[in-house]
Amino acid sequence: MYLRKTFIVLLQLLLVVVCYAQTGAQTQSKTQTPASSAPKEIVWSVMAKTYGGDLPVHVDSGHVYMEIPQAYIGRHVLISAQIDRGFGYVSHFIHSIGVARIQLQDAQTISFVALDKYDKSKTKSIKDAGKQEMAFAIVGRTNTGSALIDLTETLLVGDNWFDVKAQNEIRELYPELSSLLKVKVLGSTMQFSVRRYYGSQAEDKMLSSSMIVLPDASLPLDISCSVQLLPKELAPIRLVHKDLGNLSSQGNTVPVVCRWVLKEPLVFYVDSLFPPQYFGAVKAGVEVWNKVLANVGIANALQVQRVSPDIGLAQQRAYISFSMNGGKSESMVLCHPVSGELLRCWICLGYSVVAGKGLDYFLLQSQLDKRLYNNAYDEELVQEGIQGVVMSLVANVLGVKNAADYGPGALQPTASD
User: Fold this and answer.
1) What does the pLDDT look like over 218-254, one tens digit per residue?
2) DSSP one-letter string for 131-191
C-alpha cells in the first residue's frame, strides 16, 4: 500500500512538470512570432539608385520604394498628376487624390487616407465621394527605422493615386508595357515620370469614305505624379461670408475660403512647348489681375515666366500649357480641404482657342469692330482672344466666381470682378 501511494505521488509530480514545460514552450513561441514576421532591413543591390529628400526614394530591380520616417506619420501630402505628353495633351492635369494623410494602419501597413477635396474647373466641380484609403504593406525598414513601401504597381498600372478616366479618347491600359522613365527628388517633393500605353480608338482615324475597320492600337502616354510633403502647420483659416462669391472648400461643415497664401509672388510658369508667339498675350492676361490685387494691398502678386530645367518642382504651383488635341480651354486647382489653401493649379489652353476665336468674334461683334474689315486683323484678334481666355481662367484659379469670357474689346476686369 505504501509503495502504491508513493508511485501515485511521483506520477502526479511528473505530470505537473510536463504540463509546465509545455506551457512555457507555448508562451515562448507566442512571444517570438511577431519578431519573426516583422519587416526586415532591406539589402540593396549594387545597381540600386537612391534619391535623397524628406521622403527618400530607392529604385532597385525594377521596383520603386519610398521611405516613410516615423516622424512623418500623420503628416499631410499633396498627390497630384498630369499628362506630360501623349494623345495630343501637353502638361495637362488629370484627376488625382489631392491631399492625403500618412497613417500607420498597423505594424505591417501604411496607408494614405485621402481627405475630402474640392477641384474647381471652368465648367463644373469635381468632388470625391467620401474618403479613400490606399494601403501599402511595409516591405522592410532602413537602418534608421524608416518604413519602406513599394510604389511600383501604383505608379505603373494603378488608378488609386491618379487616373485618366475623364479623357474619353484614352482607352484601356496595356499594363505589360508600362515603364518608369525617371525620378526627381528635391526637398519635400518627389516626382515620378512613367510611360504607360493605352488603347486608341482606331475608327476615329478613318477617312469618311473608307469602309475598312482599322485594328485597335496602343499609344504611349507619359505621366508625371508628384508627392509633396506639406508643412506641419496649416495656413490660417478664413470662413466664407454669405455674400462672398469665392471658392469654398465643400469638405468642411463650415465652409472656408479657398485662397492662395501669397507670402511671395505666385509665378505662372509657361510650358516650354507653348507657342512663343502667344507668350505676350498670356503674360498680359495674367498680369492684368495685378491691378485688382494692388487695390487690396497686394502689389505685384502675379508673375509669368517660361519654365526651365532649373525651376524646382515645389516652385511650379501654377502652370500654363497649350494642347493640340483640339479640346477646350480649362483650368483646375487643388485645395487643402482643411485650411482652404490653394496648393496647385493648371491652365490648359486648347487649340480651339486659336482656331475658333476669330470666327466667333466676327459673328458676335462684326458691327462694332472695324478691324474685321481689314485683311490684316487675324493675328491681332487671335492675340486678344487668347489674352481674354487667359484672363477668365486666371480669375477662376484665383477664386473669382465669374464665367465672363474676356475677348477683344473687353480686356479689363469689371467692377463685379
Assistant:
1) 899 999 999 999 999 988 887 776 655 555 444 445 5
2) -EEEEEEEEEE-TT--EEEE-HHHHHT--SSEE-TT-TTEEEE-GGG-EEEEEEEETTEEE
